[in-house]
């Protein structure tokens, strides 16, 4: 998802008898759905895993601005441009909510930014694909934000208070993102033959990467059991992926475009859509840094940070000067 | 690196309601903290007033003191009106 394959540093979920009294009390609170707050005792592995998960989620929001920002200057109308700017600004805001949630666990903002820029921290695989046409902006809102909502709504109930509260804010805003994307797809689907072909082409390129957002299949997902026990992962990767497919296929039907999957068909027995095999080799390759845009995304991100350095320094110098003047005036 | 200090943000969502903690952000000074809070926390008319407080200036009770601080109230149920059953025939009380 926005945080894929988060390493818990734990080999297996331990039985209650193997836990220290502190850990037992901690797990009992989680089992009773009592939220954990930053200053309370927590196992180191829980803290480390959450820092990884929340910062990865934050990085995804921040890097996620890049593929869409690419189209702000080329949006087809002023209205679409204003909407896209608002959407991209929201993504920046989501990153900020999440960074502050992670900071309550004792990691600094600068450390997280440094980890992202050095390639030590990950962000979602989905943002390493290029946005080739305007239809991609529609497909991202509809599919990528749709998949994000699917993942984030259960996280509003996660065990760590600041993360859960950030998720509530984010989910409220995310629905706008999905609808503006579908609205772009609707306009294209109702347009000329060429526009409809653009919509289909965008779906063809974004469908499989969107399904990969949910992460490896449950059988391959080594850290899921511990994350589920800690309630920082509420539903499994495969459950979320299935829900997403079931919800999205009828939406594509309405648009009159088709998923690029010959194996996709309704299974009346399961009451779900069956779908074809995901190319996990591609997913692993993108995660390892070899997707179509990995290097470009990181380069752009680092450049923005470095180019903005003088602004951060100047603002701080100004604040210090003002504070010194105020102190001198008070002393005089 | 010279990280901007952290500020806690409180928003009054409507006239008549109290300010409520909504999250935190980094800013070089109080003035910028208010400006940043406006962009980060009120993009959809969520507020009519903003308070910003340096996180370092907040004094909080320790989680370990929870029992000492709050447990004494548990045994004082008579502080709640429902502790006193009233006869059905007695009205307006």
Describe the structure.
- The complex is a heterodimer of chains A (332) and B (93).
- Chain A has helices spanning 21-31, 44-63, 65-69, 78-103, 109-117, 134-155, 161-189, 193-212, 224-229, 237-255, 280-290, 294-307, 309-331, and strands spanning 265-267, 272-274.
- With 332 residues, chain A is mostly helical.
- The model of chain A has no long low-confidence stretch (mean pLDDT 94).
- In chain A, strands 1-2 form a two-stranded antiparallel sheet.
- Chain B is an alpha+beta fold.
- Chain B has two helices and three strands; from the N terminus they run ββαβα.
- In chain B, strands 2-1-3 form a three-stranded antiparallel β-sheet, covered by helices on one side.
- In chain B, strand 1 and strand 2 form a beta hairpin.
- Chain A binds chain B through residues 37, 39-41, 86, 89-90, 93, 96-97, 100-101, 103, 108-110, 165-166, 169, 173, 312-313, 315-316, 318-319, 322-323, and chain B through 1-4, 6, 22-26, 28-29, 32, 39-40, 43-44, 60, 62-63.
List the helices and strands and how they pair.
The complex is a heterodimer of chains A (332) and B (93).
Chain A (H helix, E strand, L loop, with lengths): L20 H11 L12 H20 L1 H5 L8 H26 L5 H9 L16 H22 L5 H29 L3 H20 L11 H6 L7 H19 L9 E3 L4 E3 L5 H11 L3 H14 L1 H23 L1
Antiparallel strand pairs in A: 1-2
Chain B lengths: L5 E7 L7 E7 L3 H12 L7 E6 L11 H5 L23
Antiparallel strand pairs in B: 1-2, 1-3
């Amino acid at each position: 998802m926005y945080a894929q394959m988060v390493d818990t540093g734990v080999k297996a979920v331990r039985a209650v008898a193997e836990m220290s009294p502190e850990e037992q009390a901690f797990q009992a609170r989680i089992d009773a759905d009592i939220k954990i707050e930053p200053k309370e005792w927590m196992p180191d592995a829980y803290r480390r895993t959450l820092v990884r998960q929340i910062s990865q989620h934050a990085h995804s929001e921040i890097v996620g601005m890049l593929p869409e920002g690419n189209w702000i200057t080329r949006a087809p109308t002023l209205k679409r441009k204003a909407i896209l700017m608002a959407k991209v600004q929201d993504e920046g805001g989501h990153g900020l909510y999440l960074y502050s949630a992670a900071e309550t666990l004792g990691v600094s903002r600068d450390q997280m930014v440094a980890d992202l820029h050095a390639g030590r921290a990950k962000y979602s695989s989905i943002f390493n694909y290029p946005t080739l046409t305007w239809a991609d902006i529609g497909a991202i809102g509809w599919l990528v934000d749709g998949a994000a909502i699917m993942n984030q709504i259960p996280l509003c109930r996660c065990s760590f208070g600041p993360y859960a509260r950030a998720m509530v804010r984010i989910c409220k805003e995310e629905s706008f993102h999905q609808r503006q994307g579908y609205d772009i797809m609707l306009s294209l689907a109702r347009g000329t033959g060429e526009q409809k072909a653009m919509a289909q082409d965008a779906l063809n390129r974004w469908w499989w990467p969107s399904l990969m957002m949910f992460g490896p299949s449950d059988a391959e997902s080594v850290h899921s059991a511990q994350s589920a026990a800690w309630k920082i992962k509420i539903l499994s990767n495969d459950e979320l992926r299935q829900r997403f497919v079931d919800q999205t296929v009828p939406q594509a039907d309405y648009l009159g475009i088709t998923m690029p999957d010959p194996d996709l068909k309704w299974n009346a027995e399961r009451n779900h859509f069956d779908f074809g095999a995901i190319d996990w080799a591609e997913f692993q390759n993108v995660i390892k840094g070899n997707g179509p845009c990995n290097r470009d995304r990181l380069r752009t991100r680092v450049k923005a940070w470095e180019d903005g350095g003088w602004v951060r320094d100047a603002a701080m110098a100004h604040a210090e000067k003002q504070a010194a003047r105020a102190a001198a005036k008070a002393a005089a | 690196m010279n990280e901007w200090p952290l500020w806690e943000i409180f928003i009054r969502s409507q006239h008549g309601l109290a300010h409520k903690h909504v999250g935190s952000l980094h800013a070089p000074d109080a003035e910028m903290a208010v400006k940043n809070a406006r962009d980060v926390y009120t993009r959809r008319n969520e507020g009519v007033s903003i308070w910003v407080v340096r996180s370092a200036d907040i004094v909080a009770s320790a989680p370990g003191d929870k029992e000492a601080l709050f447990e004494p109230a548990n045994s004082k149920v008579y502080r709640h009106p429902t502790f006193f059953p009233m006869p059905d025939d007695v009205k307006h009380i």
